[in-house]
Design a protein that fits this description.
- The chain is of the alpha/beta class.
- It has two domains: 161 residues, Rossmann fold (3-Layer(aba) Sandwich); 226 residues, 3-Layer(aba) Sandwich (Rossmann fold).
- The protein is 50% helix and 12% strand.
- It has 16 helices and eight strands.
- It has a four-stranded parallel sheet, with helices on both faces. Strands 6-5-7-8 form a four-stranded parallel sheet, sandwiched between helices.
- α4 packs across α5, α9 runs antiparallel to α11 and α14 crosses α15.
Length: 403
């Protein structure tokens, strides 16, 4: 296929957290607000005067110093983030909006939070005098009571904090403006992603992964013109005459902000047509609906709890619903199987991956490839062997079924 006009530019934006568009927004006087988890509503961090940056640690392969503080028995993702912070890669941040969700990212954020205690000497990791870190509690259930509780948490620990520390406008009018901008990003990302549903998709999983990531790590108002142009470009993009892959897969699992991992999967013959993982678009790019007369903050709190498919929700009905959701995505995207990946030492996804491996094959007849990996690809040869074997097994299954 013809190369996408902005793909190389998008790839360059992903090389550093403090990328070109982040620097431009900072130069315009806007505040950079970091976060690590879907449960911190990015729409609240994109209020007028500030912008959200979902943190990543690209190209971090040896988080040795971070391991000294966090131990080698915690997820490589959290250690990589802390390593990047110690290297000065997040000094552009004015705030980190933390959530009490993933244990390892909590530890990372506790380390970068200024303590201001006589009994604890601050490491002063983030070299920014304005920097602060605020934690928000997130419910473990999905009920009306939880929506109200989460709304109150967001008001106390996000809106009030942004207003008091940075002077951000947190009025209902400002919230509705942020929602409108967020929904346009969702519309464009979904429009681009829907081309993966074609028999011969006109966008690869790698390309879509890159586009989705730049929408998370760049100021929305600056990346939107590029997304609009890319969505328009996709309308006339022609597929290869012959489909270059051997099967289609849904890629599910924990933190995956490395497009090269998707490229590795696709180099083995499996086109990634759906991204049901942390940093993916399946949940994060659903538009926020505010009913007539509804408190916009309540609508936001409800949206993020209802749309999440995070394994930290442990009731049996929620767990079964997640399996059904994956099975539905396989059907919706015409996929032949699922690859479920968890980062090593990831508490939630280690359990979820094992259950997915059993239930999806047993109850839905879907071929599953189960992988445990590090945050950054360091064992690409072993992974390649696993993916190639999985592709061959899917092909054999299709032949046996006469497809």
């Amino acid at each position: 296929m013809r190369d996408l006009k902005h793909l190389i530019y998008f790839e360059n934006l992903l090389q550093e957290a403090n990328n070109e568009l982040v620097q431009q927004a900072k130069a315009e006087g806007k505040f950079a607000i970091g976060y690590t988890c879907y449960f911190m509503p990015e729409v609240l961090l994109d209020l007028p005067g500030c912008f959200s940056v979902r943190l990543r640690a690209p190209r971090c392969s040896s988080p040795d110093i971070a391991t000294y503080y966090m131990s080698a028995r915690v997820c490589h993702y959290g250690r990589s983030l802390f390593e990047r912070a110690l290297e000065g890669g997040f000094n552009f941040l004015d705030a980190q909006m933390a959530t009490e969700t993933c244990t390892v990212t909590c530890r990372f954020q506790e380390h970068i939070k200024p303590k201001h205690l006589d009994s604890v000497k601050d490491m002063n990791v983030i070299q920014n005098d304005k920097f602060f870190c605020e934690f928000t509690d997130v419910p473990f259930k999905n009920t009306e009571n939880d929506y109200e509780y989460f709304r109150d948490q967001l008001r106390a620990h996000v809106l009030t904090t942004l207003h008091d520390n940075l002077g951000i406008d947190v009025s209902d009018k400002a919230l509705k403006e942020a929602i409108k901008q967020h929904n346009e990003v969702c519309k464009l990302i979904n429009e681009i992603g829907d081309y993966r549903k074609l028999d011969n998709p006109t966008i690869t999983g790698y390309e879509f992964h890159v586009i989705q990531l730049v929408s998370l790590v760049c100021p929305k108002y600056l990346i939107l013109p590029y997304l609009r142009e890319t969505a328009k470009e996709m309308k006339t993009r022609k597929p290869d005459e012959k489909w270059p892959f051997r099967c289609k897969v849904v890629l599910a699992g924990s933190e995956n902000d490395d497009p090269d991992f998707t490229k590795l999967v696709e180099s083995c013959g499996a086109e990634v047509v759906c991204d049901r993982y942390c940093y993916g678009a399946v949940e994060s790019r659903q538009p926020i609906v505010v009913e007539k007369g509804e408190d916009p903050l309540y609508a936001i709190a409800k949206h993020y709890l209802k749309t999440s498919n995070c394994p930290r929700f442990m009731p049996q009905d929620e767990m079964r619903a997640r399996k059904q959701r994956l099975a539905d995505l396989v059907k919706e995207y015409n996929a032949d199987g699922i690859i479920v990946c968890s980062n090593k030492f990831c508490e939630y996804w280690s359990y979820e991956r094992v259950v997915d491996t059993v239930v999806l094959k047993r109850d839905f007849g879907i071929p599953v490839c189960s992988i445990e990996k590090e945050y950054i690809n360091t064992a690409s040869g072993q992974l390649r062997t696993r993916f190639q074997a999985f592709v061959e097994s899917v092909e054999i299954k299709k032949i046996q079924e006469g497809k």
